[in-house]
Amino acid sequence: MKKKADLHLHSIYSEHPSEWFLQKLGAAESYTQPDFIYKELKKRGMDYITITDHNKIDGAMLLKEKYPDEIIVGLEATAYFPEDKCKIHILVYGLNELQYDIIQTIRTDIYELRDYLKQENLTHAVAHPTYSVNGKLTQEHLEKLILLFDYFEGINGGRNKVYNNSWIKLVSNLKESHIAQLYEKYKIEPFSDKSWIKGLIGGSDDHGGLFLGKTYTETEASSIEEFLESIKNKKTKPFGRHNDFKSLAFHVYKIALDFTKDKSKNVNNTFFNELSSFFFEDRPISLINKWKLKNMSRSSTSDEEIKKVFSNLIEVLKKKKNLTLEERFEISYNKISDIVDSFFKVLLISFEENISQGNLMKIIRNISSSLPGVFIILPFYSALNHMYQNREMLNKILLKFDCEKDKNKNILWFTDTIEDLNGVSVTLRKVHEISKKNNYSIKIVSSSKNIPNDENYINLPIMHEFHLPYYEHQKIKIPSLLAAMDKIQKADPDKIIISTPGPVGMLGFLASKLFHLESIAVYHTDFAGQTNGIRDDESLVSLVHNYTHWFYQQMDTIYVPSKAYMDIIEKRGIDRKKMKIFPRGIQYDLFYPRNQGRSFLMNKHNLKPGKYLLYTGRISTDKSLNVILDVFNELVKNYPDIYLLMVGDGPHKSYFENKYTNDHIIFTGKVQREELPDYYSGADLFLFPSVTDTFGMSVLEAQACCLPAFVSSVGGPKEIIENGETGYVIKDQNLETWINKIGEFINIINTNPQMIMQMKIKSRENVKRKQNWEKFFNEFIN
């Protein structure tokens, strides 16, 4: 008959806690009474009961006296590798007091402890093997544990699913050859003659009485003795819940509340103790405290804000009956997320309203008022960080034993811009297209009201938004801090890539640290250069430069679209060793020469026959558009049949339209991407004077449509064209230089059309040869 037991849990008798928060608080490991543990476990269907306190058996012995046929005396012994003092927790079952005393004496040496457990034939298992108790655990320690022990905790209810399942997979796929290799490396005698076969158990690792019996071990047995023998014979299986960061944070919070109750036993029926009992144990609230809650909800002072929201949360929970603990946590987390957002939103609005007025005192006051939001959010972020520590070590040992994850790596790609017609958005649309085509598990993460309803996108809830200074048509969206992290955690990321250094990009960077993943950024945009081109304000440019420099310097790897920009940002202080090339490709089935391009331009814009010059992109002063517009005003005097089409929208479109009123200059405004190939195909020459573009997607599109291009000698676009063969690199921003070069090109059109035709053919050939986006992307992802 199958029997169940939760083989890892703690009571009030447990030794001091390992969690730093509880240590700082001065709280105990647990405040759960043994009798409560017994009753709850029986209610939840456990056949046998144990308590595995840290280095104590008092709680287990107390229950053994009362229920001798149902209790397994257990212990979680803190052992050490003597060579470096790395802590390992070993669960021991069925021991007596003499054995306990001996274990207490020898547990400082894990090798001696292992030999003693084997000698005494004591049932045991390594607890949460991938958890670094004192920050010293390495891959070498795990390899030694594989030799030293045959029994491990497979599902630990305090650890997340990734870690539990990864360890189960690793030990389930061990081979005899692996044990032989490890023995040759460490010269440690394996536990048994079939040490590649491991036994697995499960336990809740409960400290607060919340998850007792939710994770357990099951096997065929008719008595405690048979149950323990089944563990030794490797016939047990672990079942039940894994942990997540929300449950962990609330679990620690519960212990902290129990600590405050314990400290004030003479007033253990205080208002907040009763509320915590309602929250964690679903006990009814007294009439007088219901009255207090109603008064709190009417409170309007900032000091009472948290109490007010807490009372609202209680009211919500009171209306919802028969909720599981996890459901209560979920509702509470969402409410707490709203609370945090409200605190930070006040701060953000204050910055917007008062920074331009120089009202620093008001900003400082609002910073102070937002501090409660920081304190509320910290336990959840700390829990997330705690749950994913040692990730790199686990990945390495999985790789060594050929146990990498079966599925594709989950890649989250963060961006602050998704619907705009810029290089970042175009690149990410291509990422989305290729990932769907090749079944890559890539999700684009952004915060927008216009994200496609597609499983390959994650839309983070917006906490606040504001217009970007000098880019009034663009809004910066700031995601909800807790709601966003919940969505990211549910996506189970293996890799994080960041395309922009805005609020969403910063959240991606924070996630990479909390999930212990490499931080990878793509340097799409030179924000300092753009700011300098838009606003002649040295302090503002310095501020943007300092922030973006700091942001990219934090990254482990930076993908840069061109070698030219590698040189530029290296001169600005970014470590060259972190940089790799990130070439971008083109959608060849969209961008190809169209026969009807000429007639399209003439009909759409009522143009007369002549020579058509073209610019596409953002209409902004940072693009050096004044260069080509001033040049054109001079050229048109000598070439009256030329036209300049300025295709696109931007913050300075009205400024340029008012300044350059020449009838031969056409500002088209924003056009659909599908129309761009007709513009490129109908034009004679593409002009791109920008000195702040890291790549120049418009140049690539023009060349793919067989359009020769003139570009600046600064930045990424010069690497797209072949100088003299598919266009020209203009060495400076001098108007005379541009006038002469464009004039020469117009003359070649008139006198040597065959040469122009060769430039057009080479333009597309060059792009197809150099920019194999799909090939690069496949290598990049894998």
A few lines on this structure:
The chain is 47% helix and 16% strand. It has 782 residues and is an alpha/beta fold.
Give an overview in words.
The longest helix is centred in the middle third of the chain and has 30 residues, at 325-354. The model has no long low-confidence stretch (mean pLDDT 86). Helix 10 packs across helix 15 (360-387) and helix 13 runs antiparallel to helix 14 (325-354). The chain is of the alpha/beta class and 782 residues long. The protein is elongated, with a radius of gyration of 33 Å. Strands 12-11-10-15-16-17-18 form a 7-stranded parallel β-sheet, with helices on both faces. A 6-stranded parallel β-sheet has the order 21-20-19-22-23-24, sandwiched between helices. A 4-stranded mixed β-sheet has the order 2-3-4-5.
- Main-sheet strand order equals 12-11-10-15-16-17-18
Radius of gyration: 33 Å
**Helix segment tally:** 30
Global mean pLDDT:
86
* Count of individual beta strands: 24
